[in-house]
Inverse folding.
């Protein structure tokens, strides 16, 4: 098949960028990585990109296609070529470009190291046998352990774009991999550190990391789990934590978020008074409802029942989030199995 | 052009390669008190060890009764009796403690109902002894080793330095001792000389010699070729393992764990053909046996598009989604087939090189101060055929042993000194300029492709005398084309992979020549070296020895000799599964 690509080239010696178009012949099963190889072999040997395993496990070939981070080896080109599209390939975002599609990952790894990504003296380190841990306990960190450090999440992170010092989705997911590991003995110290500046509460919850992760690590869920664990241990002095807590209280009591009370509960009375003018401006434009009479949801009872149900389960923190994920996964799973049975029968 | 940046560092132990063996060696050398440098052409977590799927073997006895002795016997038998038995006994005896250590370091292994490490059945194993992490065991090990490496980088004062994306090019041999390596700094450009009192090669395999391979682009046998050119003997080069289940057309691996969990192999008539070839072990016979059976089926017309099928449908969605989710994703992404509903087309592909640098049980080679561990080495634990799950274990056991030994040697009086002459850099610079001065001519890709195609055709699962002889000539022709000077288009310093892949092509060519020469000379069928048409049986009287390849610089070609196999207690028997 004919494949056309536009590639953002970057020459580090001159600092110049240029968008170049290439057209090549490729086999129908070709991935984006295969196409780049053909360009490099047969069109322009100076094109630079990282690659190694070509099977979605080494994490080398993170880059952007039409502005969204992808693993080149995971991206089939057939449909794109058939539709006559000419995708634009560029280096990942939020990381400085070294050359063409190669980025400098130094800050990625520095942040990774900042969360002390190694098991800290866990259980019975010297028994000469394995630690006994159930599969269910290990499931808390299953998704986080899938991370291949490709950087796609970091590339897409909106918080990082506005605060380059934000710890970022990859390092936070790695942190969760240890906080949630029953063999790690330092969860509280880790959570205290992660709850500080540039930490878990600085995530804007845009979910781009989750959307673009090629391995199903779901970094935003990992950050939510860290938040839940922090709450469980009473590490909730950060404004972000207080903000999240008020959401729960508000939903439980009236079934709605009460914005007017959110600000004082999160920021404190003194700071809120300073924001009075802003609040009045918002109210004038109809952006916040008046605080009185209190805003109560029609199905308020249902909200309370849900809250009660979750409480009764008695599973808090990250395990609670995983339980919910699993419950959803289970449904999908049963559907798949039934479908397979049905298929089998019809054959 | 000035590429010389001078001597950059001095270490007690320098490790080249940062996959499982390299990182394990570096950690051990550090913990033995050495100042350690690690060079890797990829970032450590990108190493191909991370692509290992099925698991790692140790006789823990968590799933059924087992012992290191049984593990050793299975390994000796699997090796078709040219594994060195003293090495195998050390290997299986030390494996369990290494697994417990990995677990204590935090490896996210799968668990059984009692919360112990789960173990699954694997090919040619007398007991379920393969410890695993779903079907991403290599990934989990790479992660835990890098975590431990980082811990030492952060907390270990300045005794652990990692040179990421440094491409190793030439070993420095001074007064009969290895003292460092000349490498190319990929990110910044420039030749660098990095020195160590001792040097450990852990650069992995060379699957890229073959067109259909499970191996990453990085697996070009760099360490083996550098050692060969530095005068070291390579051992058992003819033994390339073909894995029975690689995807069509990419060659991407589907783990033996699929069959360990119960998947069938069927031909185009829907028959479980392994019943004919290995009635007891069926799909879980040794890899060489299964690959040959598949090839016979395909050659006799019971395949489809050069493939047979891996059938997992009867395992059910739940088992596939929990135990083999990665394999399912690979099949869906690269073959467009969902194994829950359809059989997956598979065929044998080059997977693991049993041969490598001749090294002893501590990883020590024939050159003072130079060690080898992992797939680059041939100790030999695997002999003529490796058992699934034994390679990850080998990287850990022998990575640790070589790291310990290299550190102790470097810190002893024997290891004193060990400086590298600065002239090696000027020599290398001259050579580099020669490569970059080629302004026209053949691009490397065509030669690379021709090696891969011809090796697969003439040196694949089944080997015929006349085809191997023909391959000798083909490779000589390819060498002529290569030696004329291939055209590297990128002349820049920054991330010049056009340059490094041209150098890798030279490595691949050297090693292919060694392989074929050793294959022609081995007039028998043993393990992965199968000659059904002229020498269909094993010939212990004449060939129960290792092949040794060295490089003759005058002739610019390999030279072959032999070496005895070390036998402790298992006399050769007929191999049946």
């Amino acid at each position: 098949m004919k494949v056309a690509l536009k590639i953002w080239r970057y020459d580090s010696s001159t600092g110049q960028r240029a968008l170049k178009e290439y057209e090549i012949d490729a086999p129908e099963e070709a991935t984006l990585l295969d196409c780049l190889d053909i360009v490099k072999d047969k069109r322009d040997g100076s094109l630079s990109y990282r690659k190694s395993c070509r099977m979605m496990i080494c994490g080398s070939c993170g880059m952007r296609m039409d502005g969204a981070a992808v693993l080149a080896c995971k991206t089939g080109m057939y449909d794109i070529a058939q539709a006559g599209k000419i995708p634009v390939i560029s280096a990942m975002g939020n990381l400085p470009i070294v050359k063409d599609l190669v980025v400098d990952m130094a800050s990625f790894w520095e942040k990774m190291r900042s969360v002390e990504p190694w098991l800290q003296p866990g259980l019975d380190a010297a028994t000469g046998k394995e630690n006994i841990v159930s599969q269910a306990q290990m499931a808390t960190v299953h998704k986080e352990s899938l991370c291949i450090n490709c950087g796609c999440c970091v590339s897409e992170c909106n918080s990082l774009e506005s605060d380059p010092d934000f710890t970022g989705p990859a390092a936070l997911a790695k942190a969760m991999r240890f906080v949630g590991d029953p063999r790690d003995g330092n969860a509280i110290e880790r959570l205290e550190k992660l709850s500080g500046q540039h930490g878990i509460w600085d995530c804007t919850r845009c979910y781009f990391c989750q959307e673009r992760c090629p391995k199903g690590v779901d970094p935003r869920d990992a950050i939510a789990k860290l938040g839940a664990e922090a709450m469980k241990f009473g590490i909730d002095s950060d404004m972000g934590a207080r903000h999240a807590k008020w959401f729960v209280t508000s939903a439980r009591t009236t079934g709605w978020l009460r914005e007017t009370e959110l600000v004082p509960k999160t920021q404190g009375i003194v700071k809120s008074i300073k924001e009075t003018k802003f609040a009045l401006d918002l109210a004038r434009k109809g952006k916040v409802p008046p605080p009185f009479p209190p805003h109560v949801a029609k199905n308020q009872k249902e909200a309370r029942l849900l809250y009660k149900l979750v409480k009764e389960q008695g599973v808090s923190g990250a395990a609670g989030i995983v339980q919910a994920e699993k419950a959803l996964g289970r449904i999908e799973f049963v559907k798949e199995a039934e479908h397979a049975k049905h298929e089998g029968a019809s054959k | 052009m000035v590429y010389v940046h001078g001597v950059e560092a001095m270490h007690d132990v320098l490790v080249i390669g940062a996959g499982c063996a390299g990182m394990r060696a570096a950690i051990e050398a550090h913990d033995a008190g050495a100042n350690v440098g690690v060079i890797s052409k990829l970032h450590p977590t990108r190493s191909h060890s991370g692509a290992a799927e099925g698991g790692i073997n140790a006789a823990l006895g968590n799933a059924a009764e087992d012992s290191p002795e049984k593990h050793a016997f299975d390994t000796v038998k699997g090796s078709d009796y040219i594994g060195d038995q003293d090495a195998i006994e050390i290997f299986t005896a030390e494996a369990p403690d290494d697994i417990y250590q990995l677990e204590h370091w935090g490896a996210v292994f799968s668990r059984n109902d009692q919360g112990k490490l789960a173990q699954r059945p694997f090919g040619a194993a007398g007991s379920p002894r393969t410890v695993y992490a779903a079907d991403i065991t290599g990934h989990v090990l790479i992660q835990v080793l890098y975590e431990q490496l980082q811990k030492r980088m952060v907390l270990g004062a300045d005794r652990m330095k990692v040179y990421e994306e440094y491409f190793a090019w030439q070993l420095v041999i001074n007064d009969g001792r290895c003292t460092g390596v000349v490498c190319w700094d990929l990110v910044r450009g420039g030749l660098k000389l990095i020195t160590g009192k001792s040097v450990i090669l852990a650069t992995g395999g060379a699957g890229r010699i073959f067109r259909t391979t499970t191996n990453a682009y990085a697996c070009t046998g760099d360490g083996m070729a550098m050692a060969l050119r530095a005068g070291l003997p390579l051992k058992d080069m003819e033994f390339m393992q073909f894995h029975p289940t690689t995807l069509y057309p990419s060659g991407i691996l589907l783990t033996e764990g699929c069959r360990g969990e119960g998947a069938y192999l069927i031909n185009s008539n829907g028959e479980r053909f392994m019943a004919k070839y290995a009635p007891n072990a069926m799909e879980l016979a040794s890899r060489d046996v299964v690959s040959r059976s598949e090839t016979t089926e395909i050659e006799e017309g019971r395949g489809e598009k050069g493939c047979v099928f891996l059938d997992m449908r009867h395992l059910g969605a739940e088992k596939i989604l929990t135990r083999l989710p990665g394999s399912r994703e690979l099949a869906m992404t690269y073959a467009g087939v969902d194994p829950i509903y359809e059989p997956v087309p598979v065929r044998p592909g080059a997977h693991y090189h049993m041969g490598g640098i001749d090294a002893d049980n501590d990883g020590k080679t024939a050159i003072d101060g130079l060690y080898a561990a992992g797939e680059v080495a041939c100790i030999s634990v695997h002999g003529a055929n490796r058992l699934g799950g034994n390679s990850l274990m080998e990287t850990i056991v022998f990575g640790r042993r070589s790291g310990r030994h290299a550190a102790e040697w470097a810190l002893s009086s024997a290891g004193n000194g060990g400086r590298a002459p600065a002239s090696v850099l000027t020599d290398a610079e001259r050579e580099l300029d020669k490569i970059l001065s080629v302004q026209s001519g053949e691009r490397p890709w065509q030669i690379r492709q021709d090696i891969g195609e011809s090796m697969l055709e003439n040196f694949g699962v089944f080997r015929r005398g006349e085809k191997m002889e023909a391959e000798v000539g083909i490779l000589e022709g390819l060498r002529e084309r290569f030696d004329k000077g291939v055209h590297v288009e990128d002349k820049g310093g920054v991330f010049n992979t056009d340059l490094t892949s041209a150098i890798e092509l030279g490595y691949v060519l050297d090693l292919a020549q060694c392989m074929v020469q050793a294959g022609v000379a081995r007039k028998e069928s043993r393990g992965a070296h199968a000659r059904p048409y002229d020498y269909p049986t094993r010939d212990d009287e004449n060939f129960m020895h290792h092949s040794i390849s060295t490089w003759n610089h005058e002739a610019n070609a390999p030279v072959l000799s032999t070496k005895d196999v070390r036998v402790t207690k298992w006399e050769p028997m007929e191999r049946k599964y």
